[in-house]
Design a protein that fits this description.
The chain is built from 15 helices and 22 strands. It is of the alpha+beta class and 543 residues long. Among the domains are: 2-12 and 46-85 and 432-538, Gyrase A, domain 2, CATH 3.30.1360.170; 90-195 and 384-423, Beta Complex (Endonuclease - Pi-scei, Chain A, domain 1).
Length: 543
């Protein structure tokens, strides 16, 4: 068991009198006294505002603080309802790959609260997780949570991945440790489920070829010598793809057919038959038409419905290997689903070493046709995680946020291609980086430097709770079931964003002598820190 003291960190960067000047601009607008604003007028104005009780003006500025405390203190903090709180969360439009398709987190949450079928189906779907070797595996979804509105940041990587998340959500960093977004900066490494795009030109250039030059995706793929589907995927990620845009010869019998071309084709054929057109081989047989005789002979000699294996006229033998004295067909090793994505549709055998003559059963992998194509193009989609570089982290406002709990032991999932951590609502402490131990907050009234009997009693109780927690996990209990035995002293992290008026209210209540000692232990140092930077707004609050 790890014992720590409570702590806090101010997340905003203060520069001079910026906060006071913003408050002054808002306040003087109310009094129509903007002409009195000067370089040093903000302090005097803010003092007057506080003294007069016109505190609504203070609501125009806010400050965010990250607090590490125990569960009892965090429960008191969140009673301040005029505030925003952040934990691990993603926005509702985040995509999660489910089988061959995708669902947003919000769709999964809505299904959880939907009809009977939806609730059941959520419990049976597989979502991609990452194992200890960095391999993509399929894992069960346990639950989906809604966590209210929170401040959101958009993260963009060099390979084009994007995600919207809170600062507390955890991503896999370069050391392969899950760390909160607030610990990342532009240029840092994150892990994603993908590969570098095969298209080695800039977004501007491919946009020029598509929109200005007027090349179709097929023509661009030939021009750049890359797979056609890579071009389609790139254009879709750039949000400029339009179906059938720039297609040539739309009215021919090819994949570029449109509804209009089909209608014209049908109309033309109907008119031709009305005017005497007939089927070319109507009334002909193989005795008077060489082409029909050639076709009939081919069908008789090569048609597969005249028997199976050796009895089939097209049989050329089977590639087999000797194993334990038995001759086994390579095709019989096929599994029930794709070993990469879990699909049960259009399955094929893949030679792992890509040698078509190596029919050893250990050289075989069952893949769906899509994953099989990806493997032979040199891709790693769905198989391994790769490094990517963050190129942008920007705050974009507030949105509804959600999170997912995955089945242990792999407490992670893939969201918008990013490897992210499982929800901490039911944190499984048996898988933390410290091994089998929990972290607790030392109560301020029991000092471990000068321990007494009460300290040892508290410590023993926490250690016993820790032991029982891991016993429950060992016996198969879920994290959410086992957590019920954990103490109130359990470490909790929370990010609080209050406007200035609510901070004043918070300090007046929580720094008072009537407040709980552990609450005062964290509130008073935060107040003192605020006084260092914007004393004029908090100097009148004493404790």
């Amino acid at each position: 068991m790890k014992i720590i003291k409570p702590s806090f960190k101010i997340l905003d960067t203060w520069s001079g009198n910026d906060i006071l000047k913003k408050i002054e601009r808002a306040g003087r607008l109310c009094y129509k006294s903007e002409n009195y604003i000067s370089d040093d007028s903000c302090k005097k104005f803010c003092k007057t505002i506080i003294k007069s009780g016109h505190h609504s003006v203070l609501e125009h500025e806010k400050i965010s603080v990250q607090i590490v405390c125990d569960r009892g203190v965090s429960h008191e903090i969140v009673r301040h309802r005029i505030a925003s709180y952040s934990q691990e969360c993603l926005t509702g439009d985040t995509f999660i790959r489910v089988g061959n398709g995708v669902k947003t987190i919000k769709e999964l949450y809505d299904r959880k609260n939907g009809m009977c079928y939806d609730k059941t189906h959520n419990k049976t779907i597989n979502i991609r997780s990452v194992n200890e070797k960095g391999e993509i595996i399929l894992n069960k979804l346990v639950d989906v949570f809604y966590k209210g509105k929170q401040p959101i940041y958009e993260v963009i990587t060099k390979l084009g991945y994007k995600i919207k998340t809170t600062l507390k959500h955890k991503f896999l960093n370069k050391d392969k440790i899950y760390s909160e977004l607030e610990n990342f900066v532009v240029g840092d490494t994150v892990y994603v489920n993908g590969r570098p795009c095969l298209i080695e030109i800039t977004d501007y250039e491919i946009k020029r070829l598509y929109e200005e030059v007027g090349l179709s995706p097929k023509e661009i793929s030939l021009e750049l010598d890359v797979p056609y589907r890579s071009v389609i995927g790139k254009l879709k990620r750039m949000e400029i793809f339009v179906s059938h845009k720039n297609d040539k010869n739309k009215e021919k019998y090819n994949f570029n057919h449109t509804k209009k071309s089909y209608e014209k084709m049908q109309q033309t054929i109907s008119e031709q038959y009305k005017n005497g057109r007939r089927i070319w081989n109507k009334g002909l047989n193989e005795s008077n038409q060489p082409g029909i005789k050639k076709q009939a002979d081919a069908l008789r000699n090569n048609h597969h419905k005249n028997g199976f294996e050796e009895k089939n006229s097209n049989w050329k033998g089977d590639r087999i290997e000797s194993l334990s004295g038995k001759r086994l067909r390579f095709s019989k090793y096929k599994k029930e689903k794709c070993e990469l994505c879990g699909s049960k549709l259009r399955l094929e055998n893949h030679h792992i070493d890509k040698d078509p003559n190596n029919y050893n059963k250990n050289n075989k992998q069952t893949l769906c046709i899509d994953c099989h194509n990806l493997i032979h193009h040199g891709w790693n989609v769905g198989k391994k995680i790769i490094e990517d570089e963050i190129i942008s982290i920007c705050e974009i406002g507030q949105e509804d946020v959600y999170d997912i709990e995955m089945k242990k032991p792999y407490n992670n999932f893939i969201a918008n291609g990013f490897i992210v951590h499982n929800s901490t609502r039911y944190c499984n402490y048996s898988k933390n980086k410290f091994g089998n131990e929990i972290t607790v907050i030392l109560p301020c009234f029991w000092d471990k430097e000068v321990p007494n009997r009460n300290y040892y009693t508290w410590k023993t109780a926490c250690e016993h709770a820790e032991k029982m927690y891991f016993e429950l996990i060992k016996d198969g209990a879920t994290a959410q079931e086992a957590r019920s035995v954990l103490p109130n002293s359990l470490k909790t992290e929370i990010v609080c964003t209050f406007n200035i008026r609510e901070w004043r209210h918070f300090f007046k209540l929580r720094c008072s002598k009537k407040a709980h000692p552990q609450m005062r232990e964290i509130a008073i140092p935060i107040l003192e820190e605020f006084k260092k930077y914007i004393s004029v707004l908090f100097d009148d609050i004493t404790y």
